[in-house]
Amino acid sequence: LLVVDGLGYTYLVEHSRGPLGRHLRSHLTSVFPSTTASAVTTLMTGLPPAGHGLTGWHMWLREVGALLAILPLSARPGAPLAEPLPPRAELPQRLFRHDTLYQSMDRTSYVVSPHFIADSPFNRYHSRGAVKQPYHGLDGLFAALGQLTAKAGRKFVYGYWPDYDSAAHEHGCRSPQALAAVDAFATAFCAWLEQIRGSDTLVLVTADHGFIDCPPQRQISLADHPLLT
């Protein structure tokens, strides 16, 4: 299961003649709210947001009396703290009560994540029952997936790639930077498919959510609203 952050169905339909579009089979709706914090947690637990309780990037958590960014488990800048936060490593046990998907599987599981989040408290908690495999860069992702595919026996591998999402948030989902990120992924992905051809591997690729760009006439600049800022 390879999760490409932000690469929604609309983009794939628009580029249906491209290397990724040729592999398009169907579409899924995301969870509600259709945001990374909610959807990635669903993909790692099998629970809807109403079950795992993570409904957005920033959440007020009465257990610690603070407004936190839920994936890095860090306080929102400028938000008041009722008391000092516990160490980040202790937060998952205080905040989360759900099991992971891997804990109930009848085979070895692997979670392949970018090195900068692989050992985060959130990722450690939600990788329980699986072997964590950090990687560096796009080549590192497919090198790790290739090594795991070559291992003998039945296994489940969850891979996560964030670069398109990062570029789309910063520059727009159809910006040159975002399109270049998808092109690089498509090239590496198709090359990897050729490498594992005949290996009896089922490859499922999906996104956690899609993107739209807000048109200029509907954008609100905080610079024009100092009181709101």
In short:
With about 230 residues, the protein is an alpha/beta fold.
Describe what you observe in this structure.
The chain has 229 residues and is of the alpha/beta class. 34% of the residues lie in helices and 15% in strands. Helix 8 packs antiparallel against helix 9 (176-195). The longest helix has 20 residues, at 176-195. The chain is globular and about 60 Å long. It starts with a strand and ends in a 23-residue tail after the last strand. The model has no long low-confidence stretch (mean pLDDT 94).
Question: What secondary-structure arrangement, pairings included, does this model have?
Answer:
Layout: E1 2-4, H1 9-14, H2 36-45, H3 49-52, E2 58-61, E3 66-69, E4 74-75, H4 91-95, E5 108-114, H5 115-118, H6 121-126, E6 131-135, H7 137-150, E7 155-161, H8 163-171, H9 176-195, E8 205-206
Parallel strand pairs: 1-7, 1-8, 5-6, 5-7
Antiparallel strand pairs: 2-3, 3-4
Features:
229 residues, alpha/beta, 9 helices, 8 strands, 34% helix
Share in helix = 25-40%
Which range does the strand content fall in? 5-15%
Overall geometry: globular
Strand order of the largest sheet: 6-5-7-1-8
Count of discrete alpha- or pi-helical segments spanning 4 or more residues = 9
